[in-house]
Amino acid sequence: GAGVSQTPSNKVTEKGKYVELRCDPISGHTALYWYRQSLGQGPEFLIYFQGTGAADDSGLPNDRFFAVRPEGSVSTLKIQRTERGDSAVYLCASSAPGTSGAPSSYNEQFFGPGTRLTVL
Amino acid sequence: GEDVEQSLFLSVREGDSSVINCTYTDSSSTYLYWYKQEPGAGLQLLTYIFSNMDMKQDQRLTVLLNKKDKHLSLRIADTQTGDSAIYFCAESPDYKLSFGAGTTVTVRA
Asked: Please, are residues A97 and A37 in contact by the beta-carbon 8 Å criterion?
């Protein structure tokens, strides 16, 4: 079946511009996560959606970053006034709900291939 | 910086065993995970271990967990060229994953 997809695969933009990164999770997965992976580092958590709502956005670095998931499926990560330090690979992951409707303690997250963002 | 620490590089001869080590900080993590990342591909879950286990074996993979020392290791038996990748260990006290910086494994002939 189809996995998590992300578009675009690469995005080059200029400092100060606005960008949108899209994630299509696996069908039926109610949980969706965004992570950011800088060069030579592991992924770092940005935001977690359960359904349409952002259950935890504590990883967003500042108010230039915002994410939405209006219909509980596709999510868009939006970055305003991009800075060179925003350059990274942005990863999206989704997981199936546990019996309570939230991710179970065993939480296999399925990752997309990522969007490589370069801010010049 | 991460709360999960890993050595950055490992070079191993084809056919030998690889051992990747990791230390984590959050003792409330119920599960600990190993992910593999190949160039141009997303993160792939390799294996995981439940925190009340000391060892888990899955084909060529063996995970050892020392909860007292908060130490996790991944052993890959009979390492093949296709095992060349970056390996991440991750802890998960809640829904989000906290990753180490990754260990780059290079398999030489």
From this structure: no
Residue B6 Cα, gap to closest chain A Cα (Å):
10
d(CA B73, CA B47): 11
Strand A31-37 and strand B9-13: pairing? unpaired
* Mean pLDDT calculated for residue range B46-50: 92
pLDDT, mean over chain A = 92
Of the CA atoms within 13 Å of residue A35, those in its CB half-sphere come to: 24
- What are B14-46's pLDDT values in tens digits? 999 999 999 998 888 788 999 999 987 889 999
Residue B15, amino acid: G
8 Å CB contact between A67 and A57: yes
Smallest Cβ distance to A45: which of B40, B50, B97?
B97
Picking from A36, A90, A106 by the largest number of B CB atoms within 10 A of its own CB, the best residue to mutate is: A106
Residue B58: name the closest of B47, B44, B69, B67 by CA. Answer: B47
Each residue's pLDDT tens digit, A32-41: 999 999 999 9
Residue A18 tokens read as 């606005």
Which residue has tokens 């490992």?
A: B10
- As given in the structure block, the two tokens for residue A105 are 């303690």
Sheet holding B18-23, edge to edge: B5-6, B18-23, B71-76, B61-66, B55-58
By the 10 Å C-beta count (0-12 exposed, 13-18 middle, 19+ buried), A14 is classed as exposed
Interchain proximity A3–B96, CB inside 8 Å: no
Residue B78 corresponds to which tokens in the numbers above?
């009979």
